[in-house]
Specification:
Elements lengths: L1 E5 L3 H13 L3 E6 L2 H11 L3 E5 L9 H12 L4 E6 L4 H9 L5 E5 L6 H12 L3 E3 L1 H9 L5 H4 L3 H11 L4 H8 L3 H14 L10 H16 L1
Parallel strand pairs: 1-2, 1-3, 3-4, 4-5, 5-6
Helix pairs in contact: 2-3, 4-11, 6-11, 8-10, 8-11, 9-10
InterPro entries: CheY-like_superfamily, NreC/VraR/RcsB-like_REC, Sig_transdc_resp-reg_C-effctor, Sig_transdc_resp-reg_receiver, Tscrpt_reg_LuxR_C, WalR-like
Protein name: Two-component system response regulator
Keywords: DNA-binding, Phosphoprotein, Transcription, Transcription regulation
Length: 219
């Protein structure tokens, strides 16, 4: 796995590089601003980019803008975004885009090495990773609607873990239930949210979007 890191904080940038290299991962370049990052992507064609949301010069959304541009130039690039704060709009947009090869973690998650590496590998392998704290904050502010009120407490637990990008087997492990039970809960979620099978819609992503969209409207 070839990785480029874009982070303006020198200590965090070098710490990330050291951590990943200690795990035998190939950090091919690091960058302190969006221009350096895009140049590194063009030069090295990495598999994954780890990108800070807020970068110079204004420290608002330069990292996101650069990540979008990097994906435009290299569509198969996996991007794991790091943020110091919960950016609700970005989390919702990430899910709306389908979440393929994309992740969003709070920076504090880096200190939990196993979880961080799991998210990194999940994104690199074509999946999605949303920080559990992001999901928790969004759900805490949730305004229930009729469809979501149909869900049982366990079904809401399953849907929250789906929002983190976890697969069925991992959800089963987290909840100490069988894979079959998770499949049943997900079928029930789809039915209660009126999500019929269709080739044009990813029901898993749509279910999560409906769960989180209430929070964006409330905020």
């Amino acid at each position: 796995m070839r990785i480029v890191i874009a982070e303006d904080d020198l200590l965090l940038r070098e710490g990330l590089a050291l951590l990943l290299r200690s795990e035998s991962l190939d950090v091919v370049a690091t960058a302190g601003d969006p221009g350096e990052f895009l140049a590194a992507v063009g030069e090295h064609s990495p598999d994954v980019a780890i990108v800070d949301v807020r970068m110079p010069p204004t420290h608002t959304d330069e990292g996101i803008v650069a990540a979008v541009e990097a994906r435009r130039r290299q569509p198969d690039l996996a991007v794991l975004v790091l943020s110091a704060y919960v950016e609700q709009a970005f989390a919702t947009e990430l899910l709306a885009g389908g979440g393929s090869r994309l992740g969003y973690l709070l920076k504090e998650r880096v200190g939990r090495v196993e979880e961080f590496l799991d998210a990194l590998h999940r994104v690199a392998n074509g999946g999605m990773a949303i920080d559990p704290e992001v999901v928790a904050q969004l759900l805490t502010k949730s305004r229930p609607d009729t469809r979501l009120e149909r869900l049982s407490a366990r079904e809401r637990d399953v849907l929250a873990l789906m929002a983190e990008g976890l697969g069925n087997s991992t959800i089963a492990e987290r909840l100490s239930v069988t894979d079959g039970a998770v499949h049943k809960h997900i079928r029930n979620i789809f039915a209660k949210l009126d999500l019929a099978p269709t080739d044009r819609v990813d029901r898993r992503v749509t279910a999560v979007l409906r769960y989180l969209e209430n929070d964006r409207r409330r905020g």
